[in-house]
Design brief:
By secondary structure, this protein is an alpha/beta fold. It has one domain: Vaccinia Virus protein VP39 (Rossmann fold, 3-Layer(aba) Sandwich), CATH 3.40.50.150. Helix content is 30%, strand content 31%. It has a 7-stranded mixed β-sheet.
């Protein structure tokens, strides 16, 4: 992953255009994830927040009793998390490199709108390999991303540099995303067992404007 991508993200967090840049509370899908754990009487163990941003979900999971580690590309984000919550193991890391954890290290992993930004097939395949490696057998993985029907991202498909891949570029930040359908995600993560699926529509703000957002969330179990 180029240094340019890190610079684009650094600028986005300064501009506060997307929810992860300006919201403080946990994502709705993380609350859904925690509710699943409660309903199934699962023990709160070690959890990896992949692409943690400013740490809103990592902070919440830590307060809820998980032992949290988190990764992000932006050095300032990680420094702020380390300063605010020393109990969280926060690392600045490029997800195209091997994850800095041993095999079977985590009981849980959460990814809220991070995987969708991996525009290269090689990066996505590497991510999948590393996710499988660091999750314990039977570990639960939350993935949340934008649908092709999302009110902000969906219309950008008309200017896609790669329509077949459903690649879009945020015109405000120049950050790439891949838009997904449910079947795309289930096919890519076919080595996992699907536990639950959610498709949620709501009004949300992107770059100071309101849109009807469409978010797909998945709970998978590592085999």
């Amino acid at each position: 992953m180029s240094r340019n991508i890190a610079d684009l993200w650094k600028n986005e967090y300064k501009q506060k255009g997307i929810p992860s840049s300006y919201l403080e509370g946990p994502s709705q899908c993380v609350l859904w994830f925690e509710e699943y754990i409660r309903q199934h009487s699962l023990k709160k163990g070690s959890a990896l927040d992949i692409g943690c941003g400013r740490g809103r979900n990592a902070f919440y999971l830590s307060r809820s009793g998980f032992r949290v580690s988190c990764l992000d590309l932006v050095e300032e984000n990680i420094a702020n998390i380390q300063s605010a919550a020393k109990e969280i193991d926060a690392k600045c890391h490029d997800l195209t490199k091997p994850f800095p954890y041993s095999n079977g290290h985590f009981d849980y992993a959460v990814d809220v709108f991070c995987f969708k930004h991996l525009a290269e097939e090689e990066a996505r395949n590497h991510y999948l390999w590393e996710l499988k490696r660091v999750l314990k057998k039977g570990g639960v993985y939350l993935l949340s991303l934008a649908s092709v029907e999302d009110g902000f991202y969906g219309p950008l498909l008309g200017q896609s540099p790669n329509p077949a891949q459903r690649l879009v570029i945020d015109p405000y930040s120049n950050i790439p995303s891949i838009l997904y359908r449910r079947e795309d995600v289930e096919k890519f993560f076919k080595g996992f067992n699907l536990l639950e699926f959610s498709e949620k529509r709501s009004i949300g703000q992107m770059h100071t404007k309101q849109y009807i957002r469409c978010v797909l969330s998945f709970l998978f179990e590592s085999e």
